[in-house]
Amino acid sequence: IQLVDRNVEMILVEAASDNTFAQNNLALQVSMSDRLALSLGYELRQNTSPPPDQHRLDSLTTLNLVYKVD
């Protein structure tokens, strides 16, 4: 049985002399039919010099219904 149709991971790093921003995205997608899929995502963001009222590490969790259009 194949549970995961698609696994996507993306890593982004932007570096400068005074700040480094890193982002890691992971998504798993499972087909429910020929046109519908369910996608679960998790994202981590790290900023070495955030604004004073922000944290250095932030995360985001998403759940999406994906519809395929031909």
Description of the molecule:
0% of the residues lie in helices and 64% in strands. It is built from no helices and 4 strands. It has a 4-stranded antiparallel sheet with strand order 1-2-3-4, with no helix packed on it.
Fill in the keyword field for this structure.
4 strands, single chain, elongated, four-stranded antiparallel sheet, 0% helix, 70 residues, mainly beta
How do the strands and helices of this protein lay out in sequence?
Elements: E1 6-15, E2 20-31, E3 36-47, E4 57-67
Antiparallel strand pairs: 1-2, 2-3, 3-4
- Uncertain regions spanning at least 5 consecutive residues: none
Going by helix content, strand content and strand pairing, the class is mainly beta
**Spatial order of the strands in the main sheet?**
1-2-3-4
Which of globular, elongated, flat, extended, rod-shaped describes the shape? elongated
Number of strands: 4
Helicity level = under 10%
Q: Please state the average pLDDT score.
A: 90
First-residue to last-residue Cα separation: 26 Å
Q: Sketch the major β-sheet.
A: 4 strands, antiparallel
Total DSSP helices: 0
Hey, roughly how much beta strand do the residues contain? Answer: over 45%
H-E string: EEEE
Rg for CA atoms: 16 Å
